[in-house]
């Protein structure tokens, strides 16, 4: 039986107004299977241009929108937690405010959740921020056992692509602070809890790659988040001691190599949930 679902989209002052408007339209009006509710979480104050864009899409949307304003910027973990609590539906689709959902995304993902999956992601096209040209494609692993095995080294889901059951998220304690890796920490706990998982290999989201995308994957802040995550995964016995040592060594080194090397490593190895290809 078809179930209604909610779209959960956070937005904050760092988002571009034009990008946000495109992201919203692509995930609501342009979908062949539309959400029944949009939960739009505004994480702190935004500039006038973005505020106007938000007001415009909310007023024009044929799908009911809950515009939840958080007075001060509190970060993604709390924004998503508050947004999930406002969902009227157990099936929730995630979307970022600067990416683009392809029209068949929810028509292909949601039935998989209706059929029994608790968490399902998709492949992604990577496109340049400046001219919109596609520069890469991520094809995730699709077999549940393969996804679970790969998750011991790297996040097997691209967060902006996932659709999940809120009940399965709630069962493991929801989003929890983990530096810059709250999504990986959530998905690992769901897998450890026995959630039914899968991925659609087809790219159904276009992921915006802007200036500094690879620079942000490195540095001390990322390293601290990485170390905290790896310790947490080990504490819940999600990884073995050998896997922990491997991850700290390999993923830790990745945070400190030059940006040019990090870009090559990311595209060839780190994000290789199945294959990462260049165009």
List the helices and strands and how they pair.
Blueprint: E1 5-12, H1 17-27, E2 37-43, H2 48-60, E3 65-70, H3 76-85, E4 91-94, E5 100-101, H4 105-114, E6 119-128, E7 134-139, H5 144-150, E8 163-165, H6 166-171, H7 182-192, E9 197-209, H8 220-235, H9 241-254, H10 259-270, E10 275-278
Parallel strand pairs: 1-2, 1-4, 2-3, 6-9
Antiparallel strand pairs: 4-8, 5-9, 6-7, 6-8, 7-10
Structure report:
It is a single chain. The protein has 279 residues and is of the alpha/beta class. The chain has helices at residues 17-27, 48-60, 76-85, 105-114, 144-150, 166-171, 182-192, 220-235, 241-254, 259-270; strands at 5-12, 37-43, 65-70, 91-94, 100-101, 119-128, 134-139, 163-165, 197-209, 275-278. Strands 1, 2, 3, 4, 5, 6, 7, 8, 9 and 10 form a 10-stranded mixed β-sheet that branches. Helix 2 (48-60) links the parallel strand 2 and strand 3 (65-70). The N and C termini lie far apart (39 Å).
Can I get a quick summary?
The chain is an alpha/beta fold. It is built from ten helices and ten strands. Helix 2 (48-60) links the parallel strand 2 (37-43) and strand 3 (65-70).
Largest sheet: 10 strands, mixed
User: Which overall shape is indicated by the principal axes computed on the Cα atoms?
Assistant: globular
What radius of gyration results from the CA coordinates?
Answer: 18 Å
Overall helicity: 25-40%
Elements, N to C (H/E): EHEHEHEEHEEHEHHEHHHE
Content of β-strand: 15-25%
How many H/I helical runs?
A: 10
Number of beta strands:
10
Kindly name the structural category: alpha/beta
Could you tell me the mean pLDDT? 90
Report low-confidence residues grouped into runs of 5 or more.
270-279
- Distance from first to last alpha carbon: 39 Å
């Amino acid at each position: 039986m078809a179930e209604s679902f909610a779209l959960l989209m956070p937005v904050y002052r760092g988002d571009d107004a034009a990008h946000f408007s495109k992201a919203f339209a692509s995930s609501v009006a342009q979908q062949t299977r539309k959400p029944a509710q949009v939960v739009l979480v505004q994480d702190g104050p935004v500039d006038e241009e973005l505020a106007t864009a938000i007001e415009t899409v909310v007023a024009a949307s044929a799908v009911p929108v809950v515009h939840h304003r958080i007075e001060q910027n509190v970060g993604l973990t709390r924004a998503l937690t508050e947004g999930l609590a406002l969902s009227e539906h157990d099936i929730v689709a995630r979307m970022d405010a600067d990416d683009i959902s392809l029209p068949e995304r929810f028509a292909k993902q949601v039935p998989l959740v209706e059929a029994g999956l608790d968490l399902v992601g998709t492949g992604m096209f990577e496109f340049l921020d400046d001219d919109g040209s596609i520069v890469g494609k991520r094809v995730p692993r699709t077999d549940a056992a393969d996804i679970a095995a790969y998750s011991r080294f790297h996040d097997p889901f691209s967060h902006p692509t996932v659709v999940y059951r809120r009940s399965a998220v709630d069962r493991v304690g929801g989003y929890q602070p983990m530096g810059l890796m709250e999504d990986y920490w959530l998905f690992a706990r769901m897998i450890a809890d026995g959630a039914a998982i899968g991925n659609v290999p087809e790219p159904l989201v276009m992921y915006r790659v802007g200036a500094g995308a690879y620079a942000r994957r490195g540095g001390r802040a990322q390293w601290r988040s990485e170390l905290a995550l790896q310790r947490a995964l080990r504490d819940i016995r999600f990884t073995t001691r050998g896997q922990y040592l491997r991850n700290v060594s390999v993923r830790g080194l990745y945070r400190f190599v030059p940006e040019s090397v990090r870009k090559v490593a990311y595209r060839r190895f780190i994000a290789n949930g199945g294959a990462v290809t260049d165009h």
